[in-house]
Amino acid sequence: MAIIRSLSSATLDTPTPTAPNAPRHHLRAVDRDEVIDVAEFLPPGATWLPAPPHTLPTLPGQPPMVGYLVLIPADSPHLVRSAPVAAPVLPAEAEPLVRIDTVQRTAQLNGEELDLTYLEFELLAHLVAHPNRVHTRDQLVTTVWGYGHVGDGRTVDVHIARLRRKLGVEHRKAIQTVRRVGYKYTPPTAR
Are the C-beta atoms of residues 36 and 28 closer than 8 Å to each other? Predict the structure, then answer.
């Protein structure tokens, strides 16, 4: 059985094709055990390495995906830069209800201090620092608990449940579950 693999050199060299019919991908069938020399597809100075398996999505009933990280020097002319994303502008009266003070290690909701354990504080501080961003359970375990943590995603679920209880009925939905992925924090604001 042959597998089709796609490697794009056009997207690395130029952000848009010069002609409407210009090919964007090089496709060819390869055998399962065939080794492909990807160096010809990389811009000068770039390196590549296999992506860690836990960072790749899995599809039920499908073989595991293989991914690669392509590292391009910051000063490379081949680097495609995206436009900076502007932070949302809140109206003057909209003030965040959850405040994190990392120096004094306190979290406040509506001006009242929350009674959090060490890991609950770390988890909430991480989520609040990255609002509206979806975090997988593995990412949270790695970031909050550290690489040496022995456990699974259920540890994250338990701590999220505790945080939601401490945020109360009115604000518990600030930490949203993204099904089959993980969690994200959507900041509640004063009304």
Answer: no
Using N-to-C axis directions, what is the helix angle for 118-129 and 153-167, rounded to 10°?
A: 90
DSSP 171: T
Query: In angstroms, rounded to a whole number, what is the distance separating the alpha carbons of residues 91 and 134?
Result: 24
| Distance (Å, whole) CA 152 – CA 18 | 48
- From the list 178, 175, 179, the residue with the least C-alpha distance to 187 is 175
- 111 backbone φψ class: left, alpha, beta (φ>0; ψ -120 to 50): left
- Two tokens, residue 32: 């399962």
CA–CA gap between residue 95 and residue 110 (Å, rounded):
10
Strand order in the sheet with 106-109: 98-101, 106-109, 112-113
Furthest CA-CA distance within the chain: 63
Q: Rounded distance, CA 174 to CA 92, Å? A: 20
Residues 145-182: tens digit of each pLDDT: 876 666 666 888 999 999 999 999 888 999 999 988 89
Q: What pLDDT, on a 0 to 100 scale, did the predictor assign at position 185?
A: 93
pTM of the model: 0.51
The pLDDT tens digits of the residues spanning 16-74 come to 444 455 444 445 555 667 766 666 767 777 777 777 777 777 767 777 777 777 777 77
Q: Which DSSP symbol is given to 41?
A: G
